Amino acid sequence: MSVTVAIPVRGGGSLLEGTLVALTRQTVAHELLVCDSGSNDGSIDMARSYGARVVEIAPERFGHGATRNLLMQEAEGERVALLTQDAEPADERWLERLLGGFELADEVGIVYGPYKPRPGASAAVRIELERWFASLAPDGQPRVECLSDAERACAAIELMGRRGFFTDANACVYRPAWERVPFREVSYAEDRVLAIDMLRAGYGKAFVPAAAVLHSHEYTPIQQLRRCFDEWRGLREVYGWREPLSPMRVVNGLRGELGAARRELVASGTPAAERRATLLALSRHHVLRLAGAVLGSRANALPEWARRWLSMEGRGSFQPLDLDGHLQSNEEEART
Fold it and tell me: Which residues contact 229 (CB under 8 A, 6 or more apart)?
């Protein structure tokens, strides 16, 4: 079985080097492939010094789906593991464990693993990551998701959450499956769209909790708002999801988040002063996340300039996908 590890890169810096160093320690031999889209910080030379084959493209040619399709085309491996430049394998068996996901069921076409917070990550970031990925496999064991023949016609919104979640910041794709079901060239959430397309095509999706990468970000308040805006705009574009907004839901959501966090902090013996500071930071994190979710899932109603200002990527468009074969009419979109 031939294996490629493929990474899109632009200005990777020290985080890219951490990822490349971790790849040298893997227990599975692999081809290393990098697609660089305009680095001027030495990332290309760095990647080559670690044995990578580098494909260079102009910055304007980069696209989340298009660039990953290019990496898949260029890769020599039958299995292609995908990382981002700041997703560092957590240990030397990362790739071995990720590949093991294909052995869980004959029909598995894509496999993914979790993110772990980097050392020194804030409590808000750590709790959010740990809670989300723990929810995908509560028993800590690998899990395979498949659709029955009848379920393949279900609406995309029914696959939102655990069943349809997938991330190509820590993933592996079976080449024959990709040849049949490539990434779509979309502006955002290309990984979730791939998961929907794969599941509907009859392939399985495996989650391997032990195949972790170090991948977390510490955002300023405005960056947090913009990052959540982009994510929830993507959820609206992919699934048609519109974040509910009601005072009771907001209060109950915040109460639930803080209550669970407080219990975890007490159980871990965190001093009272540190608990208060952590809960205050979590409150701010949750409020900004909710604000980004509400605005992002209503991006269709915002003017282009507002979408561009609210976007971490500076994207002003709103491009709903017709995954179910029946997009709403312009009139219906305007009303929502």
Answer: 292, 295, 296, 299, 310, 311, 312
Same-domain pairing of 100 and 121: yes
Give Cα 5 to chain centroid, integer Å: 17
Global pTM reads 0.89
Q: How many whole angstroms separate alpha carbon 195 and alpha carbon 166?
A: 6
**How many domains are contained in the chain?**
2
How confident is the model over 249-289, as pLDDT tens digits? 777 877 887 887 788 788 878 888 888 888 888 888 888 98
Domain that holds residue 38: 3-214
Question: Where does a domain end: 168, 188, 214?
Answer: 214
Q: Which residues contact 289 (CB under 8 A, 6 or more apart)?
A: 224, 228
Average pLDDT score over the chain: 91
Kindly give the residue spans of alpha helices, DSSP state H, lying in the chain: 13-24, 43-49, 64-74, 94-100, 123-136, 175-180, 190-200, 221-239, 247-267, 272-296, 304-310, 330-335
Residue type, 38: G
Q: In the structure encoding, which two tokens stand for residue 156, read together?
A: 């995309």
DSSP string, 88-114: EESSTTHHHHHHHGGGS-TTEEEEE--
**Which CATH number fits the domain that encloses residue 38?**
3.90.550.10
Closest CA to 198 of 112, 297, 99, 70: 112
| Burial profile 169-186: b = 16 or more Cβ within 10 angstroms, e = fewer | bbbbbbbebbeebbbbeb
CB atoms < 10 A from the CB of 233, how many?
30
